[in-house]
Design goal:
The termini are far apart. The protein has a single domain (23-42, 50-177, 221-259, 285-435), classed as 3-Layer(aba) Sandwich (UDP-N-acetylmuramoyl-L-alanine:D-glutamate ligase), CATH 3.40.1190. Helix 1 (60-70) crosses helix 7 (375-393) and helix 7 (375-393) runs antiparallel to helix 8 (405-419). The protein is globular and about 55 Å long. It has helices at residues 60-70, 85-96, 143-146, 163-176, 299-302, 327-336, 375-393, 405-419, 429-435, and strands at 23-27, 31-38, 52-58, 74-79, 99-103, 112-119, 125-128, 155-158, 229-230, 236-241, 288-292, 308-312, 341-346, 349-355, 358-363. By secondary structure, it is an alpha/beta fold.
């Protein structure tokens, strides 16, 4: 009798599950940028011959969305572009950069054309533009805005242009996350500012994060850094240094009492969960980042709606009045508006940052500058991507809480520095896409 050996049954190998791409919603200005590179900027009543030129879509929120998408995120831009020839050029460029466009322009709207001259010797630039202009605010029941309430949004960035669109988008996004008892996003339970929720994304994966309210009252967000110094007021001032690989050498300071705050509320019956909450928690509402490049009067109403404010050294508040020689007062004033995190960028100088638990500086990696155009926009887009990724993907241990914001800014500073080593706003993106693929950690 012949015996046939039987091969043990094997389970087919399952393909690895791809992490969900983080979704960023960007609201603000879209322009058409004509960039001319010259050996020296022309003086009054003078002419110069350009050695290089580029035509591309521009604007702070638009460029930030382009960088977010290049880093592997799903970027959506809400702006006004129009259906005319110039608007089609902007829309075509956004399509090439994998940015979804929600165009809320009136009939006949034409985007601004920015005339930009870049000094080849220094990388400095001059920009002339009409900016956003006046438009009719969107209707409260505009389906293009209402549909945003049913989409996964990990982070929102606004640039202060088209403030009516910013308020409309924030209303749609935040109101959707204040629904109850069971809303269209799969969130169960009526949320509060310090009440963690469980939200299911489109892949049926539960992805949550515990986060403090706007005043940072429910958690301790930092950990001890090796370069910490204690000031006379008892605050710990910490320096974070990013090397050329985007790694952070030191973290931020410990809370005054060195203890982590307890989680807000994990009652599974109250939230309608079949199982206890997992190790990840998502905030009730997504972080809202303000690119506050320069002061614009509509920002007075936008500032209180933002969790993260990153401004340039030229930014000034009107009330309370701030000056260039007192950045600490500016950071304090920005936090007083309700923001959880504030930072001031100043070109190649260190970036100053502050949150409720401490303050510090972030060194900008040195480099040979070719072009500074849109470097600030790259900083903001990379920060939005880094923060959204860190908050969604990092486990939160109640015994060892970590504030993700300075680390996200550290990575963003390194990425933005890379943008200054190329001409224009698009030539560096291919390299960025190669080094940051979807699912990569910041």
């Amino acid at each position: 009798m012949t015996t046939t050996a039987q091969t043990p049954a094997t389970t087919p190998a399952q393909p690895p599950t791809s992490p969900r791409r983080r979704a960023g919603l960007f609201v603000g200005l879209a322009t058409l940028d004509l960039v001319q590179r010259v050996d020296a900027l022309p003086g009054p009543d003078d002419k110069a011959t350009a050695t290089w030129q580029e035509l591309a879509a521009g604007g702070p929120a638009l460029n930030a969305a382009v960088v977010f998408a290049a880093l592997g995120g799903d970027a959506t831009l809400v702006t006004r572009v129009g259906a005319g020839p110039l608007g089609r050029l902007v829309a075509d460029d956004l399509r090439r950069q994998n940015v979804r466009l929600i165009d809320l322009a009136d009939a006949g709207y034409t985007p601004a054309v920015s005339a930009i001259a870049v000094d080849a010797g220094t990388g400095a630039r001059q920009i002339i533009s009409t900016d956003a202009g006046a438009s009719t605010p969107p209707a409260p029941d505009d389906p293009r805005l209402n549909n945003l309430a049913h989409e996964t949004v990990d982070i929102v960035l606004i640039d202060g242009h088209h403030p009516d669109l910013a308020h409309a988008v924030l209303d749609a996004v935040t109101e959707a996350r204040a629904l109850g008892p069971t809303d269209t996003l799969g969130v169960t339970g009526a949320p509060t500012e310090t009440d963690p929720l469980t939200e299911t994304d489109t892949h049926d994966e539960t992805d949550t994060l515990t986060e403090a309210d706007a005043h940072g009252e429910t958690d301790t967000l930092t950990e001890a850094g090796t370069h910490s110094e204690t000031s006379a007021t008892g605050e710990t001032d910490t320096r974070i240094e990013a090397d050329t690989h985007g790694k952070t050498d030191t973290l931020t300071e410990a809370d005054a009492d060195g203890e982590a705050s307890a989680p807000a509320d994990t009652d599974t019956h109250r939230h309608g969960l079949d199982q206890p909450p997992g190790p990840f928690r998502r905030p009730t509402r997504p972080p809202v980042v303000l690119d506050a490049g320069r002061w614009k009067p509509p920002m007075a109403r936008l500032l209180p709606r933002c969790t993260d404010i990153i401004c340039s050294a030229a930014f000034r508040l009107e009330t309370p009045a701030t000056t260039a020689d007192d950045p600490d007062a500016l950071l304090d004033a920005l936090l007083a508006t309700g923001a959880r995190f504030a930072a001031i960028s100043n070109g190649a100088e260190p970036i100053r940052w502050r949150h409720a638990h401490g303050t510090g500086q972030l060194e900008v990696p040195p480099t040979q500058v070719v072009d500074t155009l849109a470097a600030g926009d790259a900083l903001h887009g990379a920060y939005a991507w880094g923060l959204a990724t860190r908050l969604a993907d990092s486990p939160i241990d109640p015994a060892d809480p970590i504030d993700q914001r300075p680390q996200a800014l550290s990575t963003a500073a390194t990425i933005a520095t890379r943008s200054t080593t190329h001409r224009g706003t698009r030539s560096w993106l291919a390299d960025l896409r190669e080094t940051h693929r979807p699912g990569d950690s910041p």
